[in-house]
Amino acid sequence: MPISIFKKLNLDKIEKIFISIFLVLSLGVIIGWFVGIYELLGITPEAAGATMKFNTAIIILLSGVLMFICREKKTRFRGIYKILASILIFIGVITIGEYLGMSFISIDNIFVTDVFSKSNPGRMSPATAICSILLGIGFLGNLYPDRIFGKIGLLAFTSTAILALVGIISFILLIPMANKTSLFQTMSINTSILFLLISTLQLFKNQNSPIYQILTGDFEGSKLARKIFPSLIIFPIVSSYLLIVGIHQNIITIDFGLVAYAAIFIPVGIIYLIFTALGLNKTDEERQKLAMELQKNNSYYLKRFKEGVDQVSSVSLMDTNKVITYVNDSFCKTTQYSREEHVGNTLELLDSGHHQEQFFIQMWETIESGEIWVGEIKNKAKDGSFYWVFTAIIPFKNDKDKITEYMSISQDITERKEAEELKMDYVKKLEYKNKELEQFAYVASHDLQEPLRTVINYTDLLTKRRAEHFDELGLKSLQFIQEATVRMSQLIKSLLDYNRIDNDNNLTLVDCNELINGIEIELSKEIKDTETTIIVEKLPSINGYESTLRMLFQNLITNAIKFRKEGIKPLITISAIRDGIGWEFSVKDNGIGISSEHKEKIFVIFQQLHNKNKYEGSGIGLSHCRKIVDLHGGKIWVESKLNEGSIFKFTIRTKGHE
Questions:
Q1: CA 504 to chain centre
Q2: Which of 89, 116, 552, 562 could form a cystine bridge with 136, CB 3.0-4.6 A?
Q3: Domain spans of the chain?
Q4: Which residue spans traverse the membrane (predicted)?
Q5: Is the pTM of this model over 0.90?
Q6: DSSP class per residue in 553-598
Q7: Half-sphere exposure of 337 toward its Cβ, with a 13 Å CA cutoff?
Q8: What is the DSSP string of 217-242?
Q9: How far is CA 324 from the centre of its chain?
Q10: Nearest to 377 by CA among 326, 327, 414, 331
Q11: Rounded distance, CA 527 to CA 569, Å?
């Protein structure tokens, strides 16, 4: 049977059909014995010379039930399964005991009386009894497929199939009962066929069975068996049948028949063997050719792979004692040692002293456990210089899971590590500068404010209590001093506010519509006094720092109100659109506008474009806005023309914030 056909067979469905056949036939024979219908006891009793005994029908019936339980996986019937299989063994053992005169009980005619057989009526043949024992052992072995008893069960089914096949061949070759061996004399063709079907079905179901492996295996032995089996079975049976018929019909003599049998069988067998061998040789030749092509391709790809690895990585091999057995050119170039200096040495040659001993202990514990170790190592070259490598050390194992050698693959990362060290130095310096700024902020908020408050208090005191002692110039001087100190205090406060922008680290979801509503409430007096109109389009909710975003919008709205045209009511429009990285906000006004040369200058800290007496302020509001936008990963700019109003635009990144 070709392997492709066998694999397409639905064995479960076939087994179900045969179980039904076993049950029907066995029940038919049982009924035949009860009602005395001789024709139900054998296919052609006269030719075969044997009938299926009542106990044999019981064996077939029990075998069908056992196959049904096994196929349906009825675990709750496991106990019944064992009992039924044991009954098969019991029936066979008792029958063999009766043949040997050792039985303590007779079961030949326990249910019905055999009136058809002259010799040992009701008794199964020895072959049938042995098959009954073997089937019982085989069915019990099905319960333990992974144990030694499972292998014994497979052997029992195989033996049953062989005995049944011998019985079938005896029938095909028309061997009369008198000429059969005593083992098969009373074994019917019905029994032989049913035993063969039961045993082969069980062998087909088990992937560990020899029959399954031969029919499905891809090895040469299985292929050869599939090719030779037909000739070994069909040709001898056909030729033997023709020989026997010729002798019975007196067409040929026995001597001539034997000579002719040998003369025909041997050449035909040789010819078939030659054709089979030639077919296998052709298959093997194609396999070898394919293997050579595969080896050639693998050699080429491995060579190219090695060349590629050698160009970008340092590679070394070590034996189980960690002694280097091979290094590539890149390894020698990086370490500055020659190949001869490395081979026979260990990696300790490159020890820089940077890593503690525990580092290497843990590294080798990982590798020797069979795991790949990956990490960074600082080594020392031959000239005394230090270098860093990113290394993977791979343990190789044999088929017994034992480590045979180690491979080290490394890449030089010295430049990256030096850059990281520079970055760390920069970070440390930056942290130091930040501490200095924090100290400055403390001084500005306490030490600098204190003398300013003293000056303001004393000038107020002089103005109130000693004003009559000053002339007009003195009073103006006091006024200038007061204004200057107040402005100085405002500048310091604005500088502190600018420095504190980064301190708001609470990222929250901010509804910009509610944020603008709150600002309008805070600026309600200024809005009312200037008759300002603020139009707010639908704004999004964004992840950001709420207090700084409030300051951003408030500064832009305040500036739009402050820098208004005389005689024109301020009109402010706030909107937002989606862009590629987040949201783009616009704050548009109808104020005095900004000349093109000042569009960048306005964002510089303490820069004011207008007269301080006309427009109050510290000149730091738009600097606050730029820093806040930078904090949110965006940018800010202005689109404006002098006397035509301005549109301040800024972006807020949502990636990383939402």
A1: 43
A2: 89
A3: 3-217, 219-310, 313-412, 419-500, 504-653
A4: 17-38, 50-71, 83-107, 127-145, 152-177, 232-252, 258-280
A5: no
A6: HHHHHHHHHHTPPTTS--EEEEEEEE-SSEEEEEEE--SS---GGG
A7: 24
A8: --SHHHHHHHHHHHHHHHHHHHHHHH
A9: 35
A10: 414
A11: 10
Tokens representing 105? 């009980």
Note the pLDDT tens digit of each residue in 316-373: 999 999 999 999 988 999 999 999 999 999 989 999 999 998 999 999 999 999 899 9
Question: 51 by DSSP, 3-state: which?
Answer: coil
Q: For residue 430, how many other CB atoms are within 10 A of its CB?
A: 10
What are 457's strand-pairing partners?
A: none
Long-range contacts of 299-302 (CB under 8 A, 24+ apart): none
- CA 170, 175, 176, 182 torsion-angle sign: negative
Tokens of 417: 């590590």
Q: Residue 153 to residues 15, 18, 181, 454, 657: CA-CA distances in angstroms?
A: 19, 21, 27, 109, 69
Per the structure block, which two tokens stand in for 525? Answer: 């007096």
Q: CA of 361: how far to CAs of 66, 190, 245, 358, 372, in Å?
A: 61, 75, 86, 5, 15
Give the residue among 615, 613, 619 at the shortest CA–CA distance from 483. Answer: 613
Higher per-residue pLDDT: 472 or 58: 58
CATH class of 504-653: alpha beta
> Other CB atoms closer than 10 Å to residue 538's CB: what's the count?
8
How many CB atoms within 10 Å of residue 307? 9
Query: pLDDT by residue (tens digit) across 235-277?
Result: 666 777 677 777 677 777 766 666 666 666 666 666 666 666 6
Q: How many CB atoms lie within 10 A of CB 641?
A: 11
Specify whether the CB–CB gap between 89 and 62 falls below 8 A: no
Find out whether 375 and 363 touch, Cβ atoms under 8 Å: yes
Q: Contact 570/534 with Cβ under 8 angstroms?
A: no
* DSSP conformational letter for 642: T
The superfamily (CATH) of domain 313-412 is: PAS domain (3.30.450.20)
DSSP state for residue 351 in the 8-state scheme: B
DSSP 365-424: HHHHTTPPEEEEEEEE-TTS-EEEEEEEEEEEE-TTS-EEEEEEEEEE-HHHHHHHHHHH
Place of tokens 């001093």: 481
- Inter-axis angle of helices 126-141 and 54-72, to 10 degrees? 10
> Minimal CA–CA distance to 395: which of 424, 419, 373, 425?
373
Q: What is the dihedral of CA 495, 501, 503, 507, to 10 degrees?
A: 170
The 10s digit of each residue's pLDDT in 362-418 is 999 999 998 999 999 999 999 999 999 999 999 998 888 899 999 999 988 988 888
CA distances from 491 to 1, 556, 605, 607, 619 (A): 100, 19, 11, 12, 9
